[in-house]
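FAQ: What does the model actually see?

It sees only this:
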Amino acid sequence: MDSPAAAPAAPAAPPTGSVTPPFVSETSSFAHEPPFKPRRNPAKLWTIAAIAFASLIIIGGGALYALGPKNWFENYQMASVDDTPLLIELSEKQDRRTLQDGTEYFAASGTIINPSDTEQSVPSMLVILRDASGRIVYSWKMKAPAKTLAPGARVNFNEAKLDVPRAASQLEVGWADITRE
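And it is asked to produce this:
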């Protein structure tokens, strides 16, 4: 007799409310992991730092040039001879030596003369050292040895500096610009 085929039995469903045992986890403790974390590339980090530093310097220089004081570079210019009647007479031999430790020593010396009939105030002096082609290689302001100078009086000055460039071969001494002090 032909009887209808029996339907296969459905698999048994897991019992509801079952709890996963505590020792079973999603990840295996034996799964592959790299033995160490990858290191950072120090050359790349230093390159980034150098680029950032150079950018800051360029931006700062541009800002100083564009927004800085208008006459910041003019502080190292000689004053006009018409500003004071005082004269500067340089001594014949300026003292230049190389010390035992290799440091260059340079001393500028001379005399300040008041040829006028009135007492004059003595401004600061500007000492400029130039190389053989006439470029300024070093300069500094020198305080006057006296605040005022009587009529016809003279006063000597002498000031030394260390670490002047070896290329310096010409000396100029003049008055620092009185209007900028």
